[in-house]
Amino acid sequence: MDNRLREIVLQIIRETWAANEGGLASETIRRQLLDLGESVPEGAMDEIFSRLESRHLIRTAKPLGSAGIKAHGGIVITYVDPSLL
Hints:
By secondary structure, this protein is of the alpha+beta class. It is 51% helix and 13% strand. The chain has a single domain (3-84), classed as Orthogonal Bundle (Arc Repressor Mutant, subunit A), CATH 1.10.10. The protein has helices at 3-20, 26-35, 44-54, 69-72; strands at residues 24-25, 58-61, 76-80.
């Protein structure tokens, strides 16, 4: 896993969660990464979110038929553990 990308994703979650509480789309996070000039390899965000979810640090909803799984995880973050904030 790309630890640098993971840390930037976590920082974006920290900075935007309060304004998006109840639903933060992975596509929104990807867009912010790209705006920062970051490279986002296919599958990287899905891996980051899967690991965070397996550690119970986030909860997600996976919209049916999401075409964005490889690009950005295709999820909506519905909960962020306070320890991440």
